[in-house]
Every structure is written in structure tokens, then in C-alpha cells.
């Protein structure tokens, strides 16, 4: 395992020390060692936006804290949910007096800990409402969306909800916006290699050389098919077939597209994939309004990529364009 | 080779199609298929800033085209110099009537092709002056800087020179600023795994599992030592020993720090490395004014990282802080 780590059991703590040192303008620590909040004046009078999740997906989750995006984040061990106490502390860190929206991904541990944290916060008079992202179209059939995992589409949900909160919307409106965004969002991933959690020392799943796993999850969860590696054009077709049919997206739609590397895929290859995604969308009469290509939501050093599409109405389109600044996503606005 | 490509011989062209599709606000094509220039109003009345280099280092080089950064870029095949004609076309694309600064890295092919392109441009009355980056402290002894390679430090040279050009400085002043920046910059890399050029299909060098190559180049050029993998803290010490002693940097210095992944190293590990770099600098009485941590200058799917330090005076410090926008680097400014 050729990695840049010290004690494999301490990678999260060690990385957080580095993140705090590197981005004092964006992030500050809190009383809880696994919670960070946005630097700056805080969000008094605004709805707070919180997420949380396991480490190893950087820049998700901590890398989306900043102006116009998340107010606080709860940080888990590698590929593991933050604790209920961490979520609770994140809620308090994000509390600006108008309630907190916790927008997170659909995983058993996160569901359990968020639920507990919401109760803990309620005892202290803090109202927290939640939206559970389930954009991974390959993780369960469409009639069973409640079982689907949340993946890179979470980023778009954070963006629209946070932009609305910044405009002074109340908690119910912010929650409705996050729900609307994720309901209009579908993702799918392809894995080309496994990854290794440092504390485990070896992969807990495998992808044979020369094969790819269509529909793989962000922690190596099994996909819907293992196939011989295809050219990028065919990979894009497979991914877009899954995503487009699911919502479904159709002619005349406006969309945002996010192509994210899973960690080790060269950036030039993400653009090769995007080329085909864009061509398929053009051929289907779907107009791309926002494009994001890069390592936005990773799985340690896994090779592969995910494609996320969000169908936009005028309001989603507008909110995505508003300024935001964070490690993972900076939007300059139209200024 | 588990990669997201179509024909391995076409990866550069295919990626450029994707880049153009993804970033119409930042980049546009030119008459030359391997030259892209900044979108927008052009740079009439300003010195043009150009670089060029092989592909496979994304976001370098094309990802640094944009406002406050490069005006045009010449793009080579994977790990190969752009042609002289491509450099010449990039000079013309960046010509705003006040001459062009070509700021590139010290490699035999690039040196030859830039030299030829400068002559070709001169025949058409276009003045191009050059600065050759040689920040890789491990690539030759300090008394022989002329043989050293240019690596991630180029990004800081582009930033300061472009910021000065944007203020209306003349060509000689822009060239002097680029030279001053690279003269104050030192880098070193550590490689933890090899990488594979798609058209070759297998690595052209190897790093045995459990070992690391200190001083590795961006194309797998041999380093100064192959050692068993060390903890991140020791890796940072080794790298900083090389860099700090070389300029040398010393107590009371202000610096910019750039920690770049080489492609496949998880982002959390870059922050673990940065933690130690920051601690070593603090211990040495060196103040960090600008920090960059991420995949800024990569080598396909190589594992490993580079550390770059630039010693700042007030002017370098000021120019690094001015706004810029590109795929690889966005600086919001102090607004």
C-alpha cells in the first residue's frame, strides 16, 4: 500500500489538521473534533446548511463548506458515518436562529445517526429538518427509490439549498428546494479499480483488470453488471442510458451535468467521458446549462467516474449560478 | 489498463473536445488544433502570456488559461512537447500588440520547439521573450540549475507574470517578474507508483510496491533515491530538507506553498502531507502567506506528490492575491 499517511488509524485526524492549516479563510474547527464550520461571520438570521458523511470522498464532504454552500459538516472515519454527537454538534455550529437543514446521503449509519442527532438537538430547542439524497440510479429499482444511495448529486442539492438560504428563505422553503433538487437528480458510477482503506491495508472488494463494474457505489458497493472494459464512448452510453431513462429526462429539458472522477482516473479521461456525455445530451435534445468536470466526489484511489444529471427549472438554474466558494466548488457568479 | 479512453492514439484530441465543451466560458479553440486561447475579449494592449507542454499533467497546462492567468496554450501529445508550429500559433493567439511572454518548463523538446517558434514569430514581427522554469531541485545540483526541470512551480510563475501583465506592464517587466518568481521557487516530488501512457499500454518505468522514489520527475524521470515507503511525516521532512536548503529559505521568509498530487493519491493524503509541511515551516520560522493543496500538476495516474515553495517579497505576495479564474486555479481576490 503506497500511500502518504502516518498511523493508518489516524488518517482522518491528520488530514483535518492539514485542512485547517491550509484553509483558515474557509474553515474553522469547533469544540467537536469531527465537526468543522465555515469561517467568517456565521449565519445569524439564516437557515443553517449541514451535511456529514464518511471520509475518503474528498473534497466531499468538508470541502464544500464555505460561503454560498455548507455552514458546517460532521466528519466520519474513512467510509463510515459520523457519530450522532458529531451531527448534533454540526447542527449547533450551523444554527443561526432559523433552524437547520441537514442534507445527507442515504446510508444506514448516516440515517441512524442523523435521526438520533435531530432528537438530541430538539431537546435543546433546535429545529432540524432533513433531506436524504438518493440520486444513485443504479443502487435500487426506480419504484424503490427509498433504498437508493446518495452520491455526487448531493453537491447540487447543497448548492441550491444553500443559495436559497443565503437569500433569507425559511427552513421549510430550504428543505423543499433541497428535496426538489435531489428529486430531479440521477447519478450512476463506473468503477475500474478497487480502493484501499488505510486502516484495512487491502481492498475490501475487487475489480479484475480488464473489467469494469457498472453502477458501483462510492464505497465499492456492488453495481448492476461486471463487464469487460469498453471504450469511453460505450461507457458513456451505458451510463447515460441508465440515467436518462430513470427520471426520465427528455427532449427540451435543461440540465446541469457533473462528471466526477472517483480519485485515480486522470483528469484528461474525465474530459473524454464528458465529451461523449455532452454529445449524447445534444443528440437527445437536452440543453446543458451548468457543467462540472473534475474530482468532486471521490472514493480514495478508486479508478472510475460518476455522471450526475439534474433537470433544471428556472429557479434551480438561477440558484446554481449564484456565487459560492469552497475547496471543492467555486462559482464566481455573473459579476 | 483500466482507463476511460477510446482510441489510445487519440486521447489528447478527445480530451480537448471535452474541455471545449465543458468550459466555453473559459477556453476557445483556434485555427491550430493543438492551441487553445482564453475566451472573452482578448488581451489587446496587454502583454500576452503563453505556455505549452505535454498532455497528461491536467489541469496543467490548458487548465490554467483564463482571466488573470494564461492567454493561450500549446498542447503536446501525452508527455511530449507541442510542436514549434503549435507554440507559434499560441503566440499569435495571445498577441495583444505588446509582445508575448512564453513561460514554460525546461525540457529538451520544449526548448527546441519554443526556440524555433520564437524565430518563426519574429519573421512576422511578433516579439516573444521566454522564461524557462527549472524549479525541480532534485533534478540537478544547485550549481547546475540550467539542467533542472520545470514542474509545479510554473503555476506560480504564470500567476505573478499574468497579474502584472493585466496591470499593463510591458514585456520586459513581465519577463523579469516571471524570472524573479521562478528564481525564488523550488520544488521536489515523491513518486509512489508508476503511470501508463495510454498509447504505450504499460508503464515505461516502475516503482516497486513498498518503495518510493524521492525526486521523481513529472514523466517518471529517475529521482535521487529509492527508499522503503516512510510515514508521511518523514516524507515531508525529506522533501522539505531538499527544498529549504536549496534556495536557501530561512527564518523570517514569507512563502507560498503548493502541495500537488501526482494524480492518484487521495486528496486526504495531500492534506496529511500539507500538515507536516506547515509544521516544518512554522518550526523554521517561515511564514506561509498563500497555500495551495490539490491536484494542480499531475502525471496521469501516478501516486505521489510534489511540494513547491516560493519565497515572496511584497510584490510577489500582492500579485499572487489578485483575482484569477481557470479550471485549475481560481483566486477570488480580497473583494
TrEMBL record, chains A, B:
Keywords: Kinase, Transferase. One of its GO terms (biological process) is glycerol catabolic process. Residues 7-329 form the DhaK domain. This is Dihydroxyacetone kinase. One of its GO terms (molecular function) is glycerone kinase activity. One of its GO terms (cellular component) is cytosol. It comes from Lichenibacterium minor. SUPFAM superfamilies: DAK1/DegV-like.
Amino acid at each position: 500500500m503506497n500511500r502518504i499517511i502516518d498511523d493508518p488509524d489516524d488518517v482522518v485526524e491528520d488530514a483535518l489538521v492539514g485542512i485547517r492549516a491550509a484553509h483558515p479563510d474557509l474553515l474553522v474547527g469547533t469544540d467537536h473534533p469531527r465537526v468543522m464550520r465555515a469561517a467568517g461571520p456565521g449565519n445569524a438570521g439564516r437557515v443553517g446548511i449541514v451535511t456529514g458523511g464518511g471520509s475518503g470522498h474528498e473534497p466531499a464532504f468538508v470541502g464544500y463548506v464555505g460561503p454560498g454552500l455548507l455552514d458546517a459538516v460532521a466528519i466520519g472515519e474513512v467510509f463510515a458515518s459520523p457519530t450522532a454527537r458529531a451531527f448534533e454538534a454540526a447542527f449547533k455550529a450551523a444554527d443561526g436562529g432559523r433552524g437547520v437543514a441537514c442534507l445527507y446521503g442515504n446510508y444506514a449509519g448516516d440515517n441512524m445517526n442523523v435521526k438520533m442527532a435531530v432528537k438530541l438537538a430538539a431537546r435543546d430547542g433546535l429545529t432540524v429538518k432533513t433531506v436524504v439524497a438518493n440520486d444513485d440510479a443504479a443502487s435500487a429499482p426506480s419504484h424503490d427509490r427509498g433504498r437508493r444511495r446518495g452520491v455526487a448529486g448531493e453537491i447540487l442539492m447543497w448548492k441550491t439549498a444553500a443559495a436559497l438560504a443565503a437569500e433569507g428563505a425559511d427552513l421549510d422553503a430550504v428543505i423543499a428546494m433541497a428535496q426538489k433538487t435531489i428529486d430531479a437528480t440521477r447519478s450512476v458510477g463506473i468503477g475500474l479499480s478497487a480502493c484501499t482503506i488505510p486502516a484495512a491495508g487491502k481492498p475490501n472488494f475487487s475489480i479484475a483488470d480488464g473489467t469494469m463494474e457498472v453502477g458501483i457505489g462510492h464505497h465499492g458497493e456492488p453495481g448492476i453488471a461486471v463487464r469487460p472494459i469498453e471504450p469511453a464512448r460505450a461507457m458513456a452510453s451505458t451510463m447515460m442510458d441508465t440515467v436518462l431513462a430513470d427520471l426520465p429526462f427528455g427532449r427540451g429539458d435543461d440540465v446541469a451535468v457533473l462528471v466526477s472522477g472517483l480519485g485515480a482516473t486522470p483528469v484528461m479521461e474525465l474530459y473524454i467521458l464528458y465529451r461523449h456525455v455532452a454529445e449524447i445530451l445534444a443528440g437527445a435534445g437536452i440543453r446543458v446549462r451548468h457543467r462540472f468536470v473534475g474530482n468532486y466526489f471521490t472514493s480514495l484511489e478508486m479508478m472510475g467516474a460518476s455522471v450526475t444529471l439534474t433537470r433544471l427549472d428556472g429557479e434551480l438554474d438561477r440558484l446554481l449560478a449564484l456565487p459560492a466558494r469552497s475547496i471543492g466548488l467555486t462559482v464566481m457568479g455573473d459579476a
